[in-house]
C-alpha cells in the first residue's frame, strides 16, 4: 500500500500525486469517482462505468430527484 498526503486548496481542490495517477492510469480529462466509506474516501477511475452503476451504490440524497438530475447534468458537462 502506498500512502500520500496532499493539501486542499481554498477552492477545495487537491492534486492527485503522480504515482497515484500513474497507478490508476489517469490522464488529463479523465473522470474519477469519489466513494465515501465511513471515515474514508476512495478514488477510482470512472472510465467504462455507467453513471447509473455508480449512483445505484449511493445512499438517498437530501434533494429531489429532478434537482439532482439537473445538478448531475451540469457537473458532467
List the helices and strands and how they pair.
Layout: H1 18-24, E1 32-37, E2 40-45, H2 51-55, H3 65-75
Antiparallel strand pairs: 1-2
In short:
This protein has 77 residues and is of the alpha+beta class.
Structure description:
By secondary structure, the chain is α+β, with helices and mostly antiparallel strands. The chain has one domain (18-75). It is 30% helix and 16% strand. The protein contains 3 helices and 2 strands. Strands 1-2 form a two-stranded antiparallel ribbon. The radius of gyration is 14 Å and the shape is globular. The mean pLDDT is 82.
Radius of gyration: 14 Å
Oligomer: single chain
Choose one word for the global shape.
globular
Report the average pLDDT across residues: 82
Summed up, the domain count is 1
Main β-sheet, spatial strand arrangement: 1-2
Largest sheet: 2 strands, antiparallel
Stretches where pLDDT is under 50 for at least 5 consecutive residues are: none
Strand content: 15-25%
Helical residue percent band: 25-40%
Cα-to-Cα separation, first versus last residue? 34 Å
Which class best fits the helix and strand makeup? alpha+beta
Order of helices and strands: HEEHH
> How many H/I helices?
3
Number of strands: 2
List keywords for this structure.
77 residues; alpha+beta; two-stranded antiparallel ribbon; globular
Amino acid at each position: 500500500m502506498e500512502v500520500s498526503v496532499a493539501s486542499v486548496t481554498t477552492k477545495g481542490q487537491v492534486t492527485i500525486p503522480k504515482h497515484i495517477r500513474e497507478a490508476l492510469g489517469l490522464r488529463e480529462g479523465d473522470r474519477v469517482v469519489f466513494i465515501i466509506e465511513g471515515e474514508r474516501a476512495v478514488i477510482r477511475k470512472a472510465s467504462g462505468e455507467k453513471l447509473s452503476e455508480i449512483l445505484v451504490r449511493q445512499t438517498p440524497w437530501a434533494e429531489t430527484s429532478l434537482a439532482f438530475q439537473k445538478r448531475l447534468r451540469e457537473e458532467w458537462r
